[in-house]
Amino acid sequence: MTQDALVAVARAVFEASGGTPIDPGYVLPADLPLELSGEAVRARLCVFADHRGAEMVMRPDLTLPVAQHEAARLESGENGPRTYTYAAPAFRLPASPDDPLEFPQVGLERFGHETGPMADADLFALVLRAAEACGVRPSTIITGDLAIVPAFIEALDLPAVTADLLKRAFRQEGGMRAVLDAAARPLESEASAALDAADPEAALAALLAARAIPLAGTRSLAEIAAGLRARRAAIEAGGLTPAARAALLALREVDCALKDAPATLAALAETHGLTAAAPALERFAARTAAIFDLAPQAERRAVFRAGFGRRFTYYDGFVFEVLADGLGPDQHVAAGGRYDGLIASLSGGRASATGIGGVVRPDRIIRVRRSAA
What we know:
- The protein contains 17 helices and 12 strands.
- By secondary structure, it is of the alpha+beta class.
- Helix 7 packs antiparallel against helix 11 (about 220-235).
């Protein structure tokens, strides 16, 4: 099949489930994806200045502009659930030499519908069905749940400033490990002095230059300063107990077959006395059962990783990626997840709606098919 034929096949699967076709704006204000993307994506955004000098970006995916459209609809006074389908290009600097800068996404986004384990499983099964209709036999399906780590952190009953620091660290590249490793150490006196300087960012820049430490990734000096302030506040609030650190380190290492994940997480919570995490774990177990009911083939291929799902930071619940032989481990052929807080974020709190969606990548699927031929 040609790429256009694969687009048509995937689109037919999504359109059969209902929804309004949409092709939203190609260009977004740069602050939206910069704020809502993890570092790995932020470094790949196609950013430019418009004729007024405002920083803009080509849409890095379809979820953001579709959600922006939905936020505007809700702010205008319309209400009620909506489902959108699309087959349109997105733009990101390639992560590997064989990926294009412009690539098609075929997908579906649901807003304002009921949430719950079955809703998550239904979307997952739909995206998997679209990929399989294009001739993909998944090699691995990676799943995660961005509500599990926060639930464990809340169950530890830590000082609020420490809990907030850990939750933010979880959503960054590298996860919580650096915070956990540094938790028992006081902030260096020179770094603390820089934070207290009249111009903290300039003081931090001078400190980094004196130590020949280059800025890495896409975090600005302001973001580094904010992170150091949060770490200092957490240390002053008492830091982490050895028991809390052990629980979070154990959770961070969970990487197992999805069918084993409910029991693994429940045992971990019981070992560390985290009874307050039970509601999140019950939802997780119910979703896992629903996934295997709607997509039994996933039981052989799906894994769960506690640290998975930070590529776009607007996701806040169930997330997944479908991999196939013939591509690299970071090149999914389908992906999706839940983002119930995105509409509120885009509208500044003036509107809110549940959200979940998923896409397939026909450009990658055609390479999978060729490698298998």
